[in-house]
Design brief:
Two copies of one chain form a homodimer. Chain A is an alpha+beta fold and 232 residues long. The first copy, chain A, folds into two domains: 3-144, Sandwich (Jelly Rolls), CATH 2.60.120.10; 147-228, Winged helix-like DNA-binding domain superfamily/Winged helix DNA-binding domain (Arc Repressor Mutant, subunit A), CATH 1.10.10. Chain A contains eleven helices and eleven strands. The first copy, chain A, has a four-stranded antiparallel sheet. A four-stranded antiparallel sheet of chain A has the order 2-7-4-5. The longest helix of chain A is centred in the middle third of the chain and has 27 residues, at 120-146. At the A-B interface, strand 4, strand 5, helix 4 and helix 6 of A face strand 4, strand 5, helix 4 and helix 6 of B. Chain A binds a DNA duplex (30 and 30 nucleotides) through helix 9.
DNA sequence: CCGACGGGTTGACATATATCAATTGATTTG
DNA sequence: CAAATCAATTGATATATGTCAACCCGTCGG
């Protein structure tokens, strides 16, 4: 593993505070690999042998049932995924596939569990990370159960806008069919939802979004920190 | 706090393995209180000063947005709620109200965080509990995004049946309007959904459910451990 | 006993969302 | 360049779900 990557991983909240030698021994068992786009990294139901870290590229977490499929989340550098399965030594609940050419680090789950017991800073970081993940899913569930698809899209755009720096115009960070799945609707419906937001000053050209009337859109979307603020 | 309650709480997965004196000091700051039915214990958005434990009775976790409300989960004895907010020292994402006369133990959040650092067995238990909670929400989200309301009801009935011992007839454990909210539908729709399951051998009399054709219902519901199995 | 109340149900209807088919437009590929 | 491909869009239509109003039927308190 190149030194720069090693340092990037070290800087993750999950690893930043732990003892040097614990981090080193965690990394000793780890390996890093490049994957092309559209490769299925893990499949739901399989045992969770490795904690995964996206070093570069991006990964889609999705689930299937009865022939249907839905996107649950997107993982971007640098962060981990399937931490909960690793901790519980339980089967993956979601599958993961690369969205683009990606570099993934794999840390044996048993090493993570062992170092957890040995390093209380690491333990605290894992707990914080898990609590964060839990709260994110709760927010997503509130979004799904309390809002219509039009409201979900409106709030998604406001979040994305803020994430992109807050300017009136910004880019969607993934293709619309995946956005539709993340928001819990069909691509056709997303297309109509964008039109439905035109009266509130939203215009779309390809992946470029422009919010021409911030106040109007916010009045419609009614964003709420207890749903839309990812940092708390 | 009576001795029997003290021992019951001690037996919780969360506290079972921790050192005696740590448990004692955790309980020293705690207090237990009786609440009547329909009392709002916590309100979303407020700071999370206490970890809550339902000793007896039951508690509804719910959320609101823009005048709408939805039930997120029901907490029954003996288990904790809002662990994640306590750990992160962040605002509650959900409100909680007693469904019936209930006895609730309250442990100051800062004590939980302090003992976490001092007791690695407690730390591990918290991580396991949080991972469990996280996975439960992921399952709930898959249920919501991948299934129709009829399918959700069918699978709920199968889960409830198993929970009740597996017999052909069993009782719903809460009122239908709340069940509707938990399943993400209106009471009217739930009523129709029950009718929609009649062809699969489901009959309903008040809160009593009878599954007359197990195989038929399962063929329709297609239960899946990665969504419906709460233990993994 | 009566009447108020609340949960549950039902029917009629409105709205939201999905589905299917066809088209466009951009990109890739031979 | 032309054919093939695929995401995105659009229109027509079907299905799912919500809303509103009415009603039923227990329970509870006067």
């Amino acid at each position: 593993m190149p030194d720069s990557e090693y340092r990037d991983i070290r800087k993750l909240d999950l690893f930043a505070q732990m003892a040097d030698d614990n981090f080193t021994s965690l990394m000793r068992g780890a390996y890093v690999q490049n994957f092309p786009a559209q490769i299925e990294l893990i499949t739901e139901g399989e045992p969770s042998d490795f904690l995964h870290i996206v070093v570069s590229g991006s990964v889609d977490l999705f689930s299937t049932w009865n022939g249907r499929e839905t996107s649950m989340a997107t993982v971007r550098p640098i962060s981990t995924f399937i931490l909960a399965a690793t901790i519980k030594d339980a089967p993956y609940l979601m599958s993961a596939r690369t969205l683009e050419k990606s570099r993934i680090a794999l840390i044996p789950s048993q090493d993570v569990r062992a170092i957890f017991d040995a390093d209380s800073n690491f333990a605290r970081a894992i707990v914080t990370e898990l609590a964060q993940c839990y709260r994110s899913v709760i927010k997503a569930q509130k979004d799904l159960k309390l809002r219509t698809s039009l409201e979900r899209l409106a709030n998604y755009l406001l979040r994305q806008q803020r994430h992109a720096g807050g300017g009136a115009a910004f880019e969607l960070d993934f293709e619309k069919r995946r956005l539709a799945s993340v928001l819990g609707m069909t691509p056709e419906n997303l297309s109509r939802a964008f039109k439905g937001l035109q009266p509130y000053g939203v215009s779309v050209t390809g992946t470029r979004i422009s919010i021409d009337n911030q106040a109007d859109l916010e009045r419609f979307a009614k964003p709420n920190p207890l749903i839309d603020d990812f940092s708390t």
